[in-house]
Amino acid sequence: MSPAPEVRTTQGTVRGGTGPGGVAVFRGIPFAQPPVGRHRFAAPQPPASWAGVREAVEFGPPPPQAEALLSPGEPSPNVPGTSEDWLTVNIWTPDPGAGGLPVMVWIYGGAYLVGRSADPRFDGTTLAGEGVVLVTLNYRVGMEGFAHIERAPDNRGLLDQVAALQWVHDNITGFGGDPGNVTVFGQSAGAGSVAALLAMPTASGLFRRAVAQSVPGTFFSPALAADISASMAAELGLRATVADLAAVPPLELLKAGDSVARKLPQFLDRWGQVALTITPFSPVVDGEVLPRTPWRALTEGVGRHVDLIVGHTRDEYRLFTGGPAAVITEEQAATTLRAFAPGADGGHAYRAGYPDAGPGLLHELILSDAMFRMPSLKLAEAHADAGGPTRLFELRWGPSPLGAAHGLDTLLTFGNLRGGPRSGLLLGAEPGEEAWALSTEIRAAWRAFAATGDPGWARFDTRDRLTRLYDTTPGTTAAYPEETSREIWRDHTFDELDIVR
């Protein structure tokens, strides 16, 4: 029996374990001090060192998780009395003694409300076994990570990600990885985080490549973020200040955020689009941590040196509507069009562009476009127009009634197709040959991109708009397929959302 792998980090030695295929696995390594006590609502601080050997075989505890998104009967992920050492990384490596392996750092999604690196969907065994060093991490979500709190830095969840990337830069050589060849990748809020990292001065130089899968279009102004946070603090009879909130236990603060999240539609007259989404949190364009929105930053050439893959699924919002069987009234569709369609004539443009679409399909199309498809396309356009090496993809395949819904690409990217409610919902009880073949194709492209910057298809530009289409026919590249929506959104700019005036 082989001895357990050990690696010396800047804080001390860690001892991991060995998984399937001989992949070495290290879990729960702190990259920052626990963000509680005097570090509550602060930027992450370097972790403490330790003597001897630290066992790294268990995932660290997740940050407090919003319960507003739980399905009926689903158990709470928040266990009172557990450790508050939330800020940890996990590493899968095919060979800690190797040198120069490409590194892939995953940032989970979850509407900036939930997410944990211990989620079985993010197990890195398959990807690492195919020749990369795979890193996952926890970052603060909800009020702990994204609420605007007076006398605290905004975007603490993003700052956690930067701290984890800095830890990777300083330590990944000992796990067989190349600190000069790091790819950061994420989906949904994780893709929004990747987009933000491209625009953040503190993240510059910490990664060479990026993959953003289903980029959300919501970034907040400080005024909007402050108004939302004030409403949450008011649930406790407090102000949204460090002085008022620092002594509130994290799980109690979580309940205040959940309370507001459950009644978002009541705030339509103040928060506009945000009140019609599933989350009251997003990165804040504060002028410091995040100087400008990712679209504006990339248009100005920020991150031009970073190789970038951007993409989305075809049927993004079916995950949330429930698919074709969902009953959407004409009144609901009209409200959605008024709130989200771009420009003064956007609603008319959707009805004209999709003349055969009933209320349900119109509702789904506008939300797919506004929340994920068009923000992703616009990010690719901004990067490409500034001279950045860019690739675009759309996932068009989907075996369930939900089609190519939001989150299906995550399962295919990691190759973890069995088990868990999301897998069954999107792939069915038993994934078929098409699912395994498509997962193999996507993993190969992502690994090649991490290693060389070339995933195997042509660069995207705003003239030809060549796009990799992931469907049952391998290797298909064609013009961007969502041309009707692209035309409707052609002149739209994704700026930060503000209070409705």
Sheet-strand content, in percent, reads 5-15%
Low-confidence stretches: none
Largest sheet entry: 11 strands, mixed
The neighbouring-strand order within the major sheet is: 3-4-6-8-7-9-10-11-12-13-14
Radius of gyration: 22 Å
What's the gist of this structure?
33% of the residues lie in helices and 15% in strands. It contains 17 helices and 14 strands. The model has no long low-confidence stretch (mean pLDDT 94).
SSE topology sketch:
Layout: E1 6-8, E2 13-15, E3 17-18, E4 24-30, E5 53-55, E6 88-93, E7 101-107, H1 125-129, E8 133-137, H2 142-146, H3 156-171, E9 177-187, H4 189-199, E10 209-213, H5 222-234, H6 242-245, H7 250-262, H8 268-271, H9 294-299, E11 307-313, H10 318-321, H11 330-340, H12 346-353, H13 359-385, E12 390-395, H14 408-414, H15 421-427, H16 433-452, E13 466-470, E14 476-479, H17 483-488
Parallel strand pairs: 2-5, 7-8, 7-9, 9-10, 10-11, 11-12, 12-13
Antiparallel strand pairs: 1-2, 3-4, 4-6, 6-8, 13-14
Helix pairs in contact: 5-7, 11-13, 14-16
Q: How would you sum up this structure, described in words?
A:
This protein is 33% helix and 15% strand. The strands form 2 sheets. The protein has an 11-stranded mixed beta sheet with strand order 3-4-6-8-7-9-10-11-12-13-14, with helices on both faces. The protein has 501 residues and is of the alpha/beta class. The chain has helices at residues 125-129, 142-146, 156-171, 189-199, 222-234, 242-245, 250-262, 268-271, 294-299, 318-321, 330-340, 346-353, 359-385, 408-414, 421-427, 433-452, 483-488, and strands spanning 6-8, 13-15, 17-18, 24-30, 53-55, 88-93, 101-107, 133-137, 177-187, 209-213, 307-313, 390-395, 466-470, 476-479. The protein is globular.
